[in-house]
Amino acid sequence: QDNSFEQFIINYCNEKLQQIFIELTLKEEQEEYVREGIEWTHIEYFNNAIICDLIENNQTGILAMLDEECLRPGTVTDDTFLEKLNQVCATHQHFESRMSKCSRFLNDTSLPHSCFRIQHYAGKVMYQVEGFVDKNNDLLYRDLSQAMWKASHSLIKALFPEGNPAKINLKRPPTAGSQFKASVATLMKNLQTKNPNYIRCIKPNDKKAAHIFNDALVCHQIRYLGLLENVRVRRAGYAFRQAYEPCLERYKMLCKQTWPHWRGPARAGVEVLFNELEIPEEEFSFGRSKIFIRNPRTLFKLEDLRRQRLEDLATLIEKIYRGWKCRTRFLLMKKSQIVIASWYRRYA
Q: Which residue range or ranges hold the Myosin motor domain (predicted)?
């Protein structure tokens, strides 16, 4: 209930992680259908980029204004910082403050005068402005870092490389908010080069006890983790997609025309395969480079048919091998019998 600067930057990081989750799942999901030329109904979802911009914008962002307050000359307090927020963010739809002269919040008794409220993706959070300036301006002054660098202990010396007289930097050290913002930007850049897999954890109750399921708590988490939008996009689209070549290679044994080798384009082979299996047309679509399957049941059916076909092929291979082995043994015994009979007649 009591949130200050620390919780603010934590929630900022959560917003950035939610933003990359939206970009890599919901947005990418819909853009792939456009790239592949698949017809489908576009699903609207909330993009929290506007909230991230409210916090990190270089000119009008909350962090930028906080840094400006920390660096400007004159009397700087948490109240002057809040006053500046009220001037710049008064009309922002995700910023709320009773000091902003906005008629929507002048009579909001749940919002104290020394606080501001942000409507995050996961809900509204109220922040106590007290301590924002001091915590953001928590600098390690140059003389302290130089004193630590002169310590005889090698570990302490390694922890304060900026105290090295040969590397003196006369520029003012960055604020805590600026350092955190840079760290988050590095994290986002790193994540965008990866292919992340998400595991969403749902707390069934607040008591950390077994066999207790709080419906309201679970529904709240599902709503604000973006799972509803994800499910809607998945259900409106296709559950499975795969390039034509690996798809044909995996399921070609299910059709006599494509087994053992298909002479022609992979897409044409997949079309022949699906027509032979009599899969309903509404269950799949052909993209420019991929086959899209709508319902997981269709994929499960293909996998079951493939498993049964592999068993049949294994039985066929085993049957042919046993026949070859028995015939080889028979021919060897027949040859031996002829040799024995010829020698017997010779001495008879």
A: 1-307
